[in-house]
Sequence to fold (750 residues):
Amino acid sequence: MSYLVAVRALCEFAARRGDLDLRFTPSPSALEGMAGHATVAARRPKHYECEVALQGEYKQLCVRGRADGFDPEHHRVEEIKTYRGDFHAIPDNHRQLHWAQVKIYGWLLCCARGLREIGLALVYFDIVSHKETVLTETHTAAALRQFFEQQCEQFIQWAEQEQQHRTARDAALTEIAFPHASFRPGQRALAEAVYKSALSSRALLAQAPTGIGKTVGTLFPLLKASPAQGIDKIFYLSAKTSGRRLALDAINLLRGDSTGPLRVLELVARDKACEHPDKACHGASCPLAQGFYDRLAGARAAAVKARVLDQHRLRAIALAHQVCPYYLSQELARWSDLIIGDYNYYFDTSAMLHSLTVEQQWRVSLLVDEAHNMVERARKMYSATLAESVFAHARRAAPKTLKGALDRVRRLWRALYKDQRDTYQVYRAIDSKFLLALQQACAVIGDAMAERPGDVTEALQQFYFDALHFGRLAESFGEHSLFDITLREGGRSFRASELCIRNVIPAPFLKQRFANAHSTTLFSATLSPWQFHADMLGLADDTVAIDVDSPFAAAQLDVHIASGISTRYQQRDQSLQPIAALLAQQFGQRPGNYLAFFSSFDYLEKAWRLFNARHPGIPTWQQSRGMTEGERDRFLHRFIPGGRGIGFAVLGGAFAEGVDLPGDRLIGAFIATLGLPQINPVNEQLRLCIEKAFGSGYDYTYLYPGLQKIVQAAGRVIRTEQDHGVLHLMDDRYGADKVRALLPRWWKLN
Ligand code: SF4
Fold:
């Protein structure tokens, strides 16, 4: 078996030493880097050779790469690195890596040109001053050969182990058996569809009800399909922590059977994994960053042996080796087979898993859990806001050298809205002069951060990062997004504005993400209508959609429509009394635990007050704004088996989805809303934008997202085939055929 490896990858694996150093160093853009290389090359004599392709072998390893430059007369190989700011701020581990690369090229050149000795040069090119700082060493071919072989040896051992792991993993997955005696109703249909989508390399939208075992029903067939399809990795992406937990539980269930050596990794956000939140990620500040690369190999070897790395196990291994758990998990993403993490690891603007997929040319399959959240989450990923209040704060505290650039931004910023009469207005384009000024301000702030980091306040940094994100999205601004300005009174004569690039249709951004995956399954209990998700997310035309039959019978859920009640904004006050009466009547008929959902905290509060005043004997508890995790737990703990009372909650909030209260922990729900997003200037602009793209503005903006929330909330009642419950849909609009058509097929409306 032979392995092919790039010089850079070989060095990154074997030659990194020293501290982790993630201090922000503004790096040149790709274009600036290319221009820097060209400038250096143009300064060299005529005989200088650029981009010299090289290749060498060691045992079964083939190492390939391109040296930046070679001077054949002076026998000197050069590695050119462009940078911005203070030369001494280039982290030591980067320098080590650069030396390792040039040494390998040195050896490959000695072989190719029959040299006994060679000069090595690291050329650091400052893209602002165009000054070169050149570090040189001279090595014999024998010394370089020794270095080359040492690096290769380390890599070969690892590569062989990885190859053996892959063989064993694939053998185990080929034989993997379903962990239960039989499939639950609907689960087989789901599993078959996932398996076929992997075989045909297509996307699948699977609407599958709660209770059929979706997690095992999607993981099992994809694991089974992996060996034959040559799938390198599966990414299980979820919107919430609870989704990650379910995936880990499913893996433990499957492991009890036969997943064998499968390596599973849970990714958690940096602020959750960090051991020293008061420190910065570099060796001078954090002990787990100090010497990180010196201890990484040991930690990596121990971690891959552990196989299932949830955040707790990963933390234990990281601390045993004194390395940062968060950055260890990032390294392990390269060596794991199944990675469980938030959507943003694959779909965000600079998502790590997606970048690695492209860079390493992995064949990956995606499982996207609770996929009804994707449209909203993706919109947030591809939107950016610039607040004038943040800018004003940053400008006030900025060093004098930056004032000119910031003043120009301020002038052009104010010109953007000088004629704006309404509080909110959408513009067709973003003024190019303003964007240029913003870009120039970012460049000078970036230089200041690199050269005089002490001068840059936190406010200026925040503005800088906001502006970079805004600038990046401005480059791809188009019909999929709005550019709007919201004006707020900011005291005295100052009107503070907020500029927003507001993504409406994430499809153009996500299309390539799906295309880079071998197959994708998006699954949820609420994914209809398919076309809405396919259009908004940019799924390919050959995407397959399935609607898995519910295991629940109509007799399990009594669905009532209270058509005499209107929950429209104008009629809310009149609705409070009949709602309270209905709640009390239902509770009187069948005392037990209920959830009552409202469209806003304000509505909830009014309904709760009236209900308590009228029916003080019925226990109630209510959701409040910004509840802590402990408060949320206490709310849910009121739903004890055999308990009695009504929990008041808001639709779309923490208790409207992902909450599992089986049996008599919850016997019914009241939904006092149609769930439609509020009609306001922003939503109306969304509607117009979508109308232009797909011709279904109202449905895509209001009706479908609203009904999706209703079905999610109602889904809390029946969790198992033994559950029986009642659902009251309180609004006259539930009577409309168009609305009824969006409710689950297995419900029987009374
Ligand atoms: S422990 Fe925290 S501060 Fe230290 S390197 Fe890790 S993330 Fe950074």
In short: The pocket of iron/sulfur cluster is lined by residues 20, 270, 274-276, 279, 281, 286, 288-289, 324, 326-327 (CB under 6 Å).
